[in-house]
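At this stage, I put together a protein sequence along with its fold in C-alpha cell form, as given directly below:
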Amino acid sequence: MILIRNVRLVDAMGERGPLDVLIGEGRILSLEGGEAKQVVDGTGCFLAPGFLDLHAHLREPGEEVKEDLFSGLLAAVRGGYTDLVSMPNTKPPVDTPEAVRALKEKAKALGLARLHPAAALTEKQEGKTLTPAGLLQEAGAVLLTDDGRTNEDAGVLAAGLLMAAPLGLPVAVHAEDAGLRRNGVMNDGPLADLLGLPGNPTEAEAARIARDLEVLRYALRRSPATPRLHVQHLSTKRGLELVREAKRAGLPVTAEATPHHLTLTEEALRTFDPLFKVAPPLRGEEDREALLEGLLDGTLDAIATDHAPHTLAEKEMDLLRAPFGIPSLEVAFPLLYTELHLKRGFPLRRLVELFTDGPRRVLGLPPLHLEEGTEASLVLLDPKERPVDPQGFASKARFSPWTGWRLGGWPVLTLVEGRIVHEALE
C-alpha cells in the first residue's frame, strides 16, 4: 500500500484537491486516505495519470550504442511516461511478428514503462510490400508506420489504410515530400539563404499532408471499416490548417506535435549547432504560434517526443553531416509545463490531456482518470524549478538543446499498475 498525502489531482477532467490517495492492488483504492506502509508527502505537488508517448526511437535492435530498451524505458519513467510507442525504423526494421514479440517480452521483463511497439507498414520500410498487419497486431503492435521514411507511393499507403482499417490500427505518416525536402537541413527561407544552408520548405510538409488526406478520403470511400490516419511531428502552420480543415470535414485524422517544435525555432540554427538539427526542421515563429493554437483548439491530439538519441560524436559533426534528432523523454513535460503553462497560461488540464487521454485516443485506448478503482499508473509532479542537466539523463544521449534551462514540473514518482518504477523524492 502507498499513501500520497495532501496532493492535488489533475487529469483531462480538471483539477481538484488536495486529497489523500491510497494505492494498492494496482489501482487507486481511495481518495480519502487510509493505512499504508509507505507514505509520501505530496504537499505542493500534483498527481496525474501516467503519460503515453506515441513516438520514440529506442534504437533496439541494431543501434544499441545510441539507446536500448533499458536506457530508453528508464528515461521514459523518469519523464513520467508509463507507456511508450517505439518506432520500427531500427536495424533491421521491426516488420515481423517475431520482432514485435521479442521487443514486448524483453520490455516486460525489465519492469519499467510498458512498451507498445509500432510495426513497419511495409517490408524493410521500403515502401513497396505491405507487412502482415493482423499478425503484427496479434504480436502486440499498436500502430503501423514507415516513420523515418516518407511513403512515396500513394497506392501503397491507400492499401495500407484499407488493410489496417478492419483491425482498428492507425497508420502514422512522416509527412514530408521527398522531392521538395531534398537534402534540406533547416527550414527553407531567408535565414537558410543567409547561412548558406540547404533548406527544407514548409511546402514539403503541406504537400504531403494534402496528398495523404486525399488518400484517406479514397480509403474511407472504399472500406466498410474506418481507416485512421495519424500525422506525425506536425511542424507548420499550413500543415496544421490542412488537418484542421480535414477534421471539420469529418475525416478520421489525428496529429501530434513535439516539444522541440513547440519551444524552439529556426533562429537556433544561427549557431550552426547540430543539436538543433531535426526532421522536420525547426520552423519560424509563426509556425510555432500556430502549433500552440492547434493544441488549444483540438487540431493537435497529442504531444509526442520523437525522442531520437544519437551518440555525442555524431551530433558533434558539422551541420550537413550530423544526424537528425533530439532526445527529450526526460524533459518533455517539465519543458512544456514551464514554457506553456507557467509562462503563457496554457491550461494545465489541457496540457496533461495532451500527454494522457489525447495519445490514448489515437491508439483507441480508454481514458485514464483519477478516481477510485482506476488503474494506478500515475506520475507525481513537483513544480519546484531545477536546471536541465543532460549528464544526469538515463538516456544514453546525454546532450540537450535545453541544457541549463530552469524548469518546474519534474516527475518525482512514477508508478505502473501500482509499482514504483521511478522515485526521486527529496
User: Anything to note?
Assistant: The longest helix spans residues 202-222.
